[in-house]
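Render this sequence as a predicted structure.
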Amino acid sequence: MEKRYLAPSEVAQAIIHSAETKASLSVTRMLILGIMAGMLIGFGAFANILITQTISNIDVGLSKFLGALVFPAGLMLVIFSGSELFTGNNLMTMALLDEKITFIKMIKNWFFVYLGNFIGSVILAYIVYNSGLVSENVLSTTQNIGLAKISLSFQTAFLRGFLCNILVVLAVWSASSAIDIGSRVLSIWFPVMLFVLSGFEHSVANMFYLPLAIFSGLPTSWKDIWISNLIPVTLGNVASGGVFIPLVYYITYILPAKKN
């Protein structure tokens, strides 16, 4: 019978090999692919806003569910196009633990990909705002989303970021285990849908939501969105996606193989 998926130990090795490739990218490619990923995640985030503002007056729970259904398209496009997403690249820590890449190379990738994600997200937010697609209802919904995000305490934003990236990196992990495109779609869809439905915080998605909220008239500053949301959420994303999950699966799948 034809093999339909990779075993977890094989996925761990595939993640490490992918991290080696990512670490060897030029700065130009990191930035360009990072910009593309920021824009692609933004498309999913904007679709989420459109559905939420359309249905929330009828049923808030239904609007959250339908918004969560469309958001995963952003991560699907990132993975299928080979773009570079900061939160997914947090899994590169596994290659660091396995001594396949250096700490400097990993941090270099994270920095330039993160920068690219931010640039791409802001570019898309600016284009969307000036495209004529942002109605009064969309403006109001976007401002409410932005206000809710910058009103979180540091601890709350950090912990929601922590929970979020467990699901995001496991979506990347699951997609790496799938052989065919249909299985990859489903592997990405459900974990990402869970984090959106649960109200967790994703740093790159927020790089779209918060600038769009500023363009839409939210009375806050660029400094405030970093201090109140992006910094604690990013730290939470790294704590789970770059420390917790890589450490768990390195100890579980890579170390035993090395000992044998």
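Summary. The two ends are 29 Å apart (CA to CA). The chain has twelve helices and no strands.
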